[in-house]
Amino acid sequence: MLEALKNAWKIPDLRRRIKFTLLMLVVFRIGAFVPVPGMNPEAVRQLIERGALLGFFDIIAGGAFKQFSVFAMSITPYINASIIVQLLTIVIPRWEELAKEGVEGRKVLARYTRYGTVILGLIQATGLAIGFRSALMYPGFFGSLLVVISLTAGTAFLMWVGEQINDKGIGNGISLLIFAGIVSRLPSGLYQIYQYVRVGTTNILMVILFAVFALAVIVGVIAVQQAERRVPVHYAKRVVGRRIYGGQTTHIPMKLNAAGVIPVIFAMSILLFPSTIAGFFPNSKIALSIANFIKPGGWLYASLYALLIVFFTYFYTAVTFNPVDVAENIKKYGGFIPGIRPGRPTAEYLNRIMTRITLIGAIFLAAIAVLPYLITGVTSLNIYFGGTALLIVIGVALETMKLIEAQMLMRHYQGFLK
């Protein structure tokens, strides 16, 4: 990996993209310390420390939530808006057509996602302003309005930063922002473990057990991310004019986990949103019931978390991989899978393979995301970065490195042709 980064730094265009990406991440980290005007940070910090849910949400925001900065909501509204838009592309025929129109159609859906982000941001910011009204320095309508506008503007700015990284940087901008937020909290997490050992809350053996678990997760995630099922495809020879085409054998790489870390991010956002909103109304019996019903660390929360990860793994894989289109393209160019007839039988065969291998990948993601709750119970280490954080960090790092290597390969080919 270090060798790939070193080689990428030697290419001017890639060096410029990497510098731009790092600059945007620095802007993100600086913004995490810009406080929302009109709020008492100390009062907010005390309210956050009372609940594990808000503390876990602070990990995703990279510490911006506890500081109650303008980036306190992070890009959670954008993720929720993306989920809603992708679900509606299946329900609304017009949106389904836009998704199949290519670049122009995706631009329209991206615009809808931006609108949804602002709307959801306003709703979530209003909930935060109401929930933390005891920390307002200027109580009243205009004081709350100032908080709502500041938080929504911060989320909109992060959305713009993510899109700028997509266009001018390297990697997926939204994923990199989450990556930066989690990694920035790693030193404080390690210091927290040190404090647990120093005061006797836990012992060094439990810390070693946790380190072994983390290493096993890292190895497992890398193995699953790289694993793929290669389906052989034969192309018959064709004569076009005086040239002969085809007559070769290739394969279709079907990844064990084609969805990457997207299902984990989606599932986490879905579970955080209702519980967070419910926690802002402490005097409401319904809100308290919802908060207790979906409490992080409980069996119900872990079960729902695992089920949502499995669901979104299948959902995102179905969105990104269409076996019917793949089968039609194979048939169009005179290809066939040995022992399988072209057309519909090929599509059914590919769908059957994808369904089976996706189940393995989904179960693995769900297990890694849920295991930290068991490890916490065994080791008594009450830390917030666990399997979920490691999944996101490792998955984003692998995807970014693949993009860098693809960019290098493309430029090497260009140099060869020139």
TrEMBL record:
The keyword Ribonucleoprotein does not apply. It is a multi-pass membrane protein. Keywords: Cell membrane, Membrane, Protein transport, Translocation, Transmembrane, Transmembrane helix, Transport. InterPro entries: SecY, SecY/SEC61-alpha, SecY_CS, SecY_dom_sf. The keyword Transport applies. Its main location: membrane. It holds the Pfam family SecY. The chain crosses the membrane at residues 20-39, 78-95, 115-135, 141-161, 173-194, 200-224, 258-281, 301-321, 353-375, 381-401. GO terms for cellular component: plasma membrane. SUPFAM superfamilies: Preprotein translocase SecY subunit. One of its GO terms (biological process) is protein transport by the Sec complex. It is found in: Cell membrane; Membrane. Belongs to the SecY/SEC61-alpha family. Component of the Sec protein translocase complex. Heterotrimer consisting of SecY, SecE and SecG subunits. The heterotrimers can form oligomers, although 1 heterotrimer is thought to be able to translocate proteins. Interacts with the ribosome. Interacts with SecDF, and other proteins may be involved. Interacts with SecA. The central subunit of the protein translocation channel SecYEG. Consists of two halves formed by TMs 1-5 and 6-10. These two domains form a lateral gate at the front which open onto the bilayer between TMs 2 and 7, and are clamped together by SecE at the back. The channel is closed by both a pore ring composed of hydrophobic SecY resides and a short helix (helix 2A) on the extracellular side of the membrane which forms a plug. The plug probably moves laterally to allow the channel to open. The ring and the pore may move independently. This is Protein translocase subunit SecY. It comes from Fervidicola ferrireducens.
